[in-house]
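WARN  no MSA supplied for this record, continuing single-sequence
INFO  ligand: manganese (II) ion
INFO  echoing inputs
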Amino acid sequence: MRIDKGRLERSIEELGRIGQTPRGGLTRLALSDEDKRGRDWMVARMREAGLAVTVDQMGNIFGQRRGEAALPPVIMGSHIDSVPTGGKYDGQLGVLCALEVVRALNDGGINTRCPITLAIFTNEEGARFQPAMIASGVMAGKIALEDAYNARDKDGIRLVDELERIGYLGAEPCVARPFRAYLELHIEQGPFLEEEGLTVGVVEGIVAIAWSRLTIHGVQDHAGPTPMRVRHDALVAAAEVVGGVRRVAREIGGDLVATVGNFVVAPNIVNAIPGRVMLSIDTRDPSDATLDRARAMLEPIVRDVCAREGVRYELEHYWRVPYTPFDRDVVDTVERAAKASGARYRRIRSGAGHDAQYMAAIGPAGMVFVPSRDGRSHCEEEFTAIDDIEHGATTLLLAALDLAGRA
Ligand code: GLV
Ligand code: MN
Ligand code: MN
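INFO  complex generated
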């Protein structure tokens, strides 16, 4: 019983064509037409593999392979939505490796005691609808279904309306379900495995993540006749905040990372003083206390900058996920599987958020990482060599089999 590398490579290419960008990347925003086509393609492959497919109220897709005993399933999953001009590996790889595990079990005629479930989570990226991991968040009881349904994209379109439009507003309740273990294979998205010549990362946990939104209200006015002394420029204040975010990360140091990635200027024309700016602040650190410290340093910076420019602001800290250690037994199982697969591996921490983070709140979870070329992701250059993927997929297969138990 083994992973079919050629078949896995072909499925990566095929699904990767849905939403492919001219430069070989991927734009498959959550609940877009491309996402629908990707979902339809996956559902067809899951049914071909004999899985019983259901869809829940958040559009999460589950495909169940029956087990010999009436036990909770081992769930393997990830997401197939992408960031704009992202890559073909983030999320998609985890789903396709899980599919390949099911196919390999089928080929080998292997029955397991626990059922095995393949899961595809909605809007993991948080690129179109905020926050990220919204659907596993609802499933874990950390985000209210109502709030998730009312999340709006930048054009004001509601998540629930898009779920309905693309035909993935399911009936099954999106609530915590019992599972033997949740396993997610994912690209590392950082440089460590590649730098150290390793093929697999045994993920021990995921950093704490905080997302904030700052809206600055200045006074929109004409760029010509308005003297400098009477201006209240939202963008000038926002620019200083961006510098302040970088300064906080530098001053605290260690593993703290802080990013302003989304920046919306209104009216965003050449000859008007910007009246309003909205920007995002993403901070991450292994320690929740460090995130609190960063926030405590940032708030007075925003206050002072805005006071100097004479502008009003709202700072909303709207999403927070605590540092999440994975289940010790699942991590040990993944490590044994990595060893048995012949991978060169080590334990590692994730700097990116994953659905596994919310799944860990409701059951035993763990992850398998494979290296990212040049440590890059959330970009079109994202790439992982198929030989590394093979080690990761074999690790996933062996870990799933160990946890589900051979019948
Ligand atoms: C998901 O990609 C995240 O870590 O923001
Ligand atoms: Mn991902
Ligand atoms: Mn991502």
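The chain has two domains: 5-207+323-404, 209-318.
INFO  checksum written, moving to next record
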